[in-house]
Amino acid sequence: MLEILYQDEFLVAVNKPAGMLVHRSWLDPHETQFVMQTLRDQIGQHVFPIHRLDRPTSGVLLFALSSEIANSGITATVQADVWIRPWLSVFGTRCTR
């Protein structure tokens, strides 16, 4: 079970454990557990990744609850690091860069 840090009608933020792939990948075709499928089963609805974290990395991972939200520009904004700093402040974490 994943730790859900935040959830509303548009987004879910989870604490991704180190060692877990975000989704199926050719990097490890034998892997059977993925954050995306685990979260889908946990909350009972499809999820759409906003960004990814490398397998050995733990941390906050954002998912949209609809393809419309995922394709609305939020993905590019997060990947461009424009949205990350305000998001971190929601969790009370100070960005030090």
TrEMBL record:
EC number: 5.4.99.26
Presence of the UniProt keyword Electron transport in the record: no
EC class of the enzyme, as a word: isomerase
SUPFAM superfamilies linked to this entry: Pseudouridine synthase
InterPro entries: PsdUridine_synth_cat_dom_sf (IPR020103), PsdUridine_synth_RluA-like_CS (IPR006224), PsdUridine_synth_RsuA/RluA (IPR006145), RluA_PseudoU_synthase (IPR050188)
Pfam families given in the database record: PseudoU_synth_2
Domain Pseudouridine synthase RsuA/RluA-like intervals: 11-71
GO molecular function terms listed in the Swiss-Prot or TrEMBL record: lyase activity; RNA binding; tRNA pseudouridine(65) synthase activity
A Gene Ontology biological process term: tRNA processing
The keyword NAD belongs to this UniProt entry's keyword annotation: no
Alphabetical UniProt keywords: Isomerase, Lyase, tRNA processing
Top-rank lineage group of the source organism: Bacteria
Record field: catalytic activity: uridine(65) in tRNA = pseudouridine(65) in tRNA
Task performed by this protein: Responsible for synthesis of pseudouridine from uracil-65 in transfer RNAs.
Name of the protein described by the UniProt record: tRNA pseudouridine synthase C
Gene source species: Haemophilus influenzae HK1212
